[in-house]
Amino acid sequence: MSEFWLISAPGDKENLQALERMNTVTSKSNLSYNTKFAIPDFKVGTLDSLVGLSDELGKLDTFAESVIKRMAQSVVQVMEDSKGKVQENLLANGVDLTSFVTHFEWDMAKYPVKQPLVSVVDTLAKQLAQIETDLKSRTATYNTLKTNLENLEKKSMGNLFTRTLSNIVSKEDFVLDSEYLITLLVIVPKPSYTQWQKTYESLSDMVVPRSTKLITEDNEGGLFTVTLFRKVIDDFKTKAKENKFTVREFYYDEKEIKREREEMTRLLSDKKQQYGPLLRWLKVNFSEAFIAWIHIKALRVFVESVLRYGLPVNFQAVLLQPHKKSSTKRLREVLNSVFRHLDEVAAASILDASVEIPGLQLNNQDYFPYVYFRIDLSLLD
Hints:
Radius of gyration: 34 Å
Strand order of the largest sheet: 2-9-1-10
Number of helices: 10
Strand content: 5-15%
Distance between the termini: 12 Å
Number of strands: 10
């Protein structure tokens, strides 16, 4: 499973024994893979500041998760032709995400622990905000380019009624620069080819004999040219419609066709040039954002453990990786049983949902007698 539970318990002898008991039970029952999660000694500050940081870190955690999720989605969108290789590009510090989480080490150089906690949190918040700002700017530019290219490509697809004809017709198919004559394009259903050949010259006066030619066809019909005098265009269109022939509105403009082709070439070139740098930026900054997110999780465990267990700071953090989704309920029961002594009343209420405690929001077992946070990597799949 790509899900982790990050918990902590006081580091006294009784709770270290409880952690050992948890490891034994979860290992024997094949419920989870457990590893110690190293959290450095931070400057605690005042309890009031920790309460404020608890709320701020909760919001920052949610924000960081949303940023890395959007970055992962951007990698998928950019790698549209190589989606099978997306996970190879979603790494943290050069390793897969599971390895990074299970072997987490605090980055002392980037986030010095000698600084006050509020400064560390501020550094993380500014880093993530900058990444989000750059993400919006870079992906907006690329997506605009991609949309413009897709719109042009759509014009060259579809049936003869909707697709652009600039890449189908040529100058030689038309009578151009004539004061009196004009060449029209007519869509004829396949079953009506013979009827068209027999009748097009008589659909109106002043149609040039033997002026029709099949330019191209699709599954439904063909695109024919026909040359006639300009003065009978409206009459010819009316008669053609009566015979279920459709005159396609198109006038050959060499400059416009050239401009459209050059625009397609330019957009393809621009997209190719932007692809590499954007993907590299996404890879580097996805890694940075993910690393920041796990550091935020570590900070939350520290702050909540101090608030829950008190001073002096003494707790042990453990990372659990449930082996399968079906075992999570059993794993939760084991944890609640092993650590129920941390909060006898709350633990009892979790085991017996009928017990109500004034002021305690259980909310479908959202309250735990130990510090608990979830790291869900499935959001990046």
